[in-house]
Design goal:
single chain, alpha/beta, Rossmann fold, three-stranded parallel beta sheet
Length: 238
């Protein structure tokens, strides 16, 4: 993996010419991360080229409750407030059902380290700690309601998790699996108890965790199922 991807330059390009041809009335963007999605500044710069005066709205939730609120906000912005409320409420109910199931079926959850990037390693922030809390888990290193940030391999070794989840930001499952393979060159990684015991889980972070959308609870359910398989003594990549 290339360290530079997470050190300042976006992996996305904004097609300003196409944006101009579309003539939007509303543009929804974000200010959470300038690397993993088109930045608010880049969108604002492109809007200055457009005819008319489209409204630009930046949504930047920092928690799971904040994600639900942005869904409601987006529904209101597009004239579908009732639908936005329904989607948000359905997600809230799904989260509570998962919380109940986890308490019943996994009363003694393992200690876990969730990594949102691997080179350098990034511990989770924003809404991810809230999702883990649904399962009764806290990442051994985490930054609730704050941006994910780089941590050292020494910190990771000291945290000594029972298992490790790798869900790199912006990576699909195939790319995440390649990232896991690349980590085998790291001596500290190979020495971690969770790695030695085969207790690593690879998830599609791009689809299920990294973006503040409607698939967050589904992703957390996939994590729960993978953890349940590990606790049954079976190695599994979700």
């Amino acid at each position: 993996m290339r360290r530079g991807i997470h050190e300042g330059s976006s992996i996305y390009h904004l097609d300003a010419d196409l944006l101009e041809r579309l003539e939007p009335d509303l543009i929804v963007t974000q200010e959470l991360c300038d690397v993993c999605a088109v930045s608010y500044d880049r969108v604002s710069s492109a809007v200055r080229r457009l005819h008319g005066d489209p409204r630009v709205v930046a949504l930047e939730p920092s928690s799971f409750d904040g994600v639900l609120e942005t869904i409601r906000t987006l529904g209101s912005l597009v004239g579908r407030a009732s639908e936005g409320e329904r989607v948000a409420e359905d997600l809230r109910r799904s989260a509570e059902r998962l919380r109940t199931r986890a308490r019943r079926d996994m009363p003694d959850p393992p200690s876990l380290l969730f990594l949102e990037w691997s080179d350098p390693p990034f511990a989770p922030g924003h809404w991810t700690p809230d999702l883990l809390a649904l399962l009764g888990i806290h990442s051994t290193i985490e930054f609730p309601r704050a941006p994910a940030r780089a941590v050292t391999w020494e910190q990771i070794a000291s945290s000594d998790p029972d298992c490790i989840v790798l869900a790199p930001c912006g990576f699909d499952l195939a790319m995440a699996r390649r990232a896991l393979t690349d980590l085998q060159a790291n001596e500290t990684w190979r020495g971690l108890r969770a790695v030695r015991d085969g207790r690593t889980i690879v998830l599609d972070g791009n689809a299920y965790f990294n973006r503040p959308g409607v698939r967050l609870v589904e992703g957390t359910e996939r994590l729960f199922e993978a953890l349940a398989a590990l606790e049954d003594g079976r190695y599994r990549r979700a």
